[in-house]
Amino acid sequence: MKKNFKINLTWLALIVAGYLLLSLLIGGGVINPFGVQTISYIGIQIILAVALNFIMGISGQFSFGTAGFMAVGAYAAAIVGMYSRYYVHFYLAMFAGAVVAGLLALIVGIPTLRLKGDYLAIATLGVSEIIRILIMNGGELTNGAAGLSGIPRFTNWQTVYIFVVLAVVFTMNFINSTAGRETLSIREDEIAAESMGVNTTKVKVIAFVYGAVLSSIAGSLYAGLIGTVTPKDFTWLQSVNIIIIVVFGGLGSITGTIIAAIALGFLNVFLQDFGSLRMIIYSLALIMVMIFRPGGLLGTKEFKLSTLFNKKTKEGR
């Protein structure tokens, strides 16, 4: 018990140290405004990737719906932001967007999650595109294909940092809970899980709803960071980008997802100077990783401080 408490304190210390380090670097001018925005955007990508990894890597369901649920949160925050400059209203809009995304995922998930593999991927892609088309035809409320601009910059790096920590902590606790173990059992063998009394449809729907809510929250943060949203920001390519992060980090590994989001985010920024060659180099880097690490950077493993403590203890002996 004491050892677990020590590990929790260590994680807390690392989180606080990371926050203080970023504060010092940004406050001291070491990281310029472009770097701050890049860090914030990578944080949003981490939330999206954690949400999708929970659906794909933990529950074993293939989803293309990330962009659609992200759009729900983004437009909820954007519409409220157009009429209010108060932070409390932004967070209320974020909550409302998360509720709407969760309800949509529940309505869609009950019939579609009975499907598997490619059929489920096509169904979730269809849902995402339906959401985008509805936004494009939203009239004055969403301003159609032109989107909404002039949204107050509610999101800063501190806000993103806090939400990243909350998303990871909640997700890891969910995975280690009874419901999380049931979800993992479905990923390993759905028929065996069902024979042991696990309500597979219910568990899969819960995982799908949870992922949709996290995606919506990330969408709200995105709208508050960029200051403008358009339907073209939430095409199926956005979902593909998040899938790349999840696969790159390792399906089922939350820490792998975080490392992959950071690595690919900075790689994408550094390659901007290469112009048209950027996507070629980016693609080649991904291909090389998939050749030498087909299971992703960490596979299904998680980085645990307890492993480090055990190694140090053994070395000391």
From TrEMBL:
Signal peptide location in the record? none
Q: How does it sit in the membrane?
A: Multi-pass membrane protein
User: At the top level of its lineage, which domain of life is listed?
Assistant: Bacteria
* GO MF annotation: an example: branched-chain amino acid transmembrane transporter activity
**Gene Ontology cellular component terms for the protein in this record:** plasma membrane
Among the Pfam families in the record, one is: BPD_transp_2
Q: Report the protein name in the record.
A: Branched-chain amino acid ABC transporter permease
The record lists the organism as Floricoccus penangensis
Its taxonomic path starts at: Bacteria, Bacillati, Bacillota, Bacilli, Lactobacillales
